[in-house]
């Protein structure tokens, strides 16, 4: 995909999200995450289940608002807005959920589901245009209006429901799409169709997108840049097209090494094979490790990693890592 490098469409700075867990404990879901999405760019967020990537996506759209940090949509700061102002500003940013069936009201027909946002926030829309605009939106996502417009969600397949969710999101002409695991509940053949639809739509409409998933190959193929998360922290941010050659953080290398070579493209990760992770019990977000949160599984960990949290640093243009020891690969300047 190509990227338009203008003023950022979406910016988040030092996001912190924590959830109470009883007995004075709290889940450290997101700890100091910052990101920037340019106009027309797709940023992929990658990591294992429980790393906080979906929580980041929800905090961007203020569902719920982060406990600390700021989110800017264009020139509007969403954090701290009054509820009505937030709802109006949030119409410029739409979210597509992981489970499309649960995301749709089972009592309503497709035509009403797709039109609902427009009926609330549309600027002077005439209800007489509803059928024509809904039909156009359904065609844009590959659905036959005559077949599905009067159906309810339980009468559609999972892939059709996700297309309805995408049509509903696009009806408000958003500037940014937040896609939270949008294909993980779908069959493999349907996944490819939905991914192609999202990629085509973002290009045609010049939309920015935050694409969240745990599948390395999916995130790599649809994104311009990839942000890798582990236990609420950002490990590495790098361009997707050089991911298999240029990734240097031990956690990113571990994710890449877990894939069959065919899914990575023409070559496996460059350089020596990634060292095996250290045998250790997986850390809990209730009590994350000191210093670098990946150190309990990292083959490069030293005493410094336990005592000092690594600060993000840029090792080449557009490539940032948070690791004391990882360095750029010599054969890739």
Describe this structure in words.
This protein is an alpha/beta fold. It has a domain at about 100-170. It contains 12 helices and 12 strands. It has helices at about 55-60, 85-90, 110-120, 130-140, 145-150, 160-170, 190-205, 215-220, 245, 250-255, 260-265, 305; strands spanning about 10-20, 25-40, 40-45, 70-75, 75, 95, 175-180, 210-215, 225-230, 235-240, 315, 320. The strands form 2 sheets. Strands 6-7-8-3-9-10-12-11 form an 8-stranded mixed beta sheet, with helices on both faces. It is globular and about 70 Å long.
Short overview:
The protein has a domain at 101-169. It contains 12 helices and 12 strands. The chain has helices at residues 53-60, 83-90, 110-121, 130-140, 145-148, 158-170, 188-205, 216-222, 243-246, 250-257, 261-264, 303-307, and strands at residues 8-22, 25-38, 42-46, 68-73, 76-77, 93-96, 176-180, 208-213, 225-230, 233-239, 313-316, 319-321.
What is the strand and helix layout of this fold?
Elements: E1 8-22, E2 25-38, E3 42-46, H1 53-60, E4 68-73, E5 76-77, H2 83-90, E6 93-96, H3 110-121, H4 130-140, H5 145-148, H6 158-170, E7 176-180, H7 188-205, E8 208-213, H8 216-222, E9 225-230, E10 233-239, H9 243-246, H10 250-257, H11 261-264, H12 303-307, E11 313-316, E12 319-321
Parallel strand pairs: 3-8, 3-9, 6-7, 7-8
Antiparallel strand pairs: 1-2, 1-4, 4-5, 9-10, 10-12, 11-12
Helix pairs in contact: 3-6, 4-6, 6-7
């Amino acid at each position: 995909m190509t990227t338009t490098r203008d003023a950022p469409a979406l910016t988040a700075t030092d996001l912190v999200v924590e959830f109470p867990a009883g007995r004075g404990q709290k889940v450290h879901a997101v700890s100091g995450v910052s990101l920037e999405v340019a106009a027309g760019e797709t940023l992929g967020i990658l990591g294992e289940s429980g790393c906080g990537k979906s929580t980041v996506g929800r905090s961007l759209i203020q569902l719920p608002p982060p406990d600390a940090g700021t989110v800017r949509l264009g020139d509007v700061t969403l954090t701290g807005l009054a509820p009505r102002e937030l709802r109006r500003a949030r119409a410029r940013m739409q979210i597509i959920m992981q489970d499309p069936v649960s995301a749709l009201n089972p009592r309503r027909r497709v035509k009403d589901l797709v039109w609902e946002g427009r009926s609330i926030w549309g600027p002077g829309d005439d209800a007489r245009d509803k059928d024509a605009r809904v039909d156009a939106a359904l065609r844009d996502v590959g659905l036959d209006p005559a077949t599905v417009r009067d159906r309810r969600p339980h009468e559609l397949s999972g892939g059709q429901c996700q297309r309805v969710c995408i049509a509903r999101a696009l009806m408000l002409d958003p500037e940014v799409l937040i896609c939270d695991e949008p294909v993980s509940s779908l069959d493999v053949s349907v996944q490819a169709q939905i991914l192609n639809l999202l990629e085509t739509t973002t290009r045609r409409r010049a939309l920015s997108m935050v694409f969240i998933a745990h599948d390395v190959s999916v995130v790599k193929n649809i994104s311009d840049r990839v942000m890798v998360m582990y236990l609420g922290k950002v490990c590495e941010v790098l361009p997707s097209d050089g991911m298999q050659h240029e990734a240097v953080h031990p956690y990113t290398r571990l994710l890449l090494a877990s894939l069959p070579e065919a899914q990575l493209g023409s070559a496996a990760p460059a350089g020596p094979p990634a060292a095996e992770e250290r045998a250790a019990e997986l850390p809990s977000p209730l009590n994350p490790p000191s210093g670098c949160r990946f150190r309990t599984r990292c083959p490069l960990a030293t005493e410094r990693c336990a005592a000092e949290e690594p600060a993000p640093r840029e090792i080449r243009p557009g490539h940032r890592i948070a690791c004391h020891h990882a360095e750029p690969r010599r054969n890739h300047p």
